[in-house]
UniProtKB/TrEMBL annotation:
Pfam families, per database record: Acetyltransf_1
InterPro entries: Acyl_CoA_acyltransferase, GNAT_dom
Domain of life: Bacteria
Protein species of origin: Actinoplanes flavus
Positions of the N-acetyltransferase domain: 145-292
Name under which the protein is recorded: GNAT family N-acetyltransferase
């Protein structure tokens, strides 16, 4: 039973999203999520298909990943978590040029990478909030953009706050429209938070993987002119409430461990910090061991 890697096609993406959604389960690792695919979809369907790979055995997708600049962010089906044979086939079928692997699921695969000499890279901090209890009021006025409710002024504010939250953001109204028209957004919402004077100060997009499964925050940002007032905590609480309304079991997020401010914001919003996880980095061979 050989493992085969396939490049996604525009026609296959919706099915891949549903497959990845089915791998999300309460208590599981914060791995590749439909929201990761949905957020990247803002660049276009063909552009997303270019970077998505899937691995199959007997025609069944058992792993999926997004490739970018030598990094591959992976999700692995729980059914093959301890499958050493699948792990070996997966490692052998990684795309050429892969230097870093984000593999937070797949115990056998992670163990094989370590035994093959791959080393720990940058630590990431996963955080999660259980949504079985009451979620408090955020204290912000929240406007919601979902697949059925699109207000042009709110879209404009969503884009403005995104660009003011991230220095190198290329987000535009057109990219929001592309993302919102894609299949993952049918189970997603953008939230924009406003001060009492009507100024948009924070935003977040939340992605459901389906009833009873973990939901994802990706991304969350606070306008650079309005930081230090608790708006990050407030919009994160609002995100948890939105995911609860959508039937998610938990709200999850993962941020670089070095981003202590972000970690503190999520903790203040009721998220539990889980143990840090590290990507796997291909070891650099000594000069005298290199060939060609």
């Amino acid at each position: 039973m050989s493992i085969a890697m396939h490049r996604a096609t525009p026609e296959s993406l919706a099915g891949i999203v549903e497959t990845v959604a089915g791998w999300q389960h309460p208590g599981g690792p914060v791995q590749l999520h439909p929201g990761d695919l949905g957020w990247h979809w803002r660049f276009g369907t063909r552009e997303l298909a270019e970077v998505v790979r899937v691995w199959t055995r007997d025609g069944r997708i058992l792993a999926a990943g997004m490739v970018e600049d030598g990094l591959i962010r992976m999700g692995i089906a729980p059914a093959v978590d301890d499958d050493a044979g699948f792990a070996a086939g997966l490692l052998a079928a990684l795309p050429g040029g892969t230097q870093t692997v984000e593999a937070r699921s797949g115990a056998a695969f992670g163990d094989l990478l370590r035994r093959s000499g791959w080393v720990a890279d940058e630590p990431w901090t996963p955080l999660t909030r259980n949504l079985t209890g009451r979620v408090e009021d955020s204290g912000l006025r929240i406007e919601i953009l979902d697949a059925h409710h699109v207000d042009e002024k709110t879209v404009e504010d969503r884009v403005t706050v995104q660009r003011a939250s991230f220095p190198h953001s290329t987000f535009t109204r057109e990219r929001w429209q592309t993302m919102a028209a894609a299949p993952p957004y049918r189970r997603a919402r953008c939230l924009v938070g406003y001060r009492p004077d009507g100024e948009a100060v924070a935003t977040v997009t939340v992605w459901s993987a389906g009833e009873g499964r973990p939901g994802l925050l990706e991304p969350m940002g606070v306008h650079h002119d309005h930081r230090g007032h608790g708006y990050g905590r407030a919009i994160t609480v609002a995100a948890a409430a939105a995911l609860q309304q959508m039937g998610s079991s938990t709200a999850t997020v993962c941020t670089p461990g070095s981003n202590t401010g972000a970690v503190a914001t999520y903790v203040s919003a009721g998220f539990d910090r889980l143990p840090d996880v590290a990507d796997f980095r291909r070891p650099t061979l000594p000069d005298n061991d290199r060939r060609g």
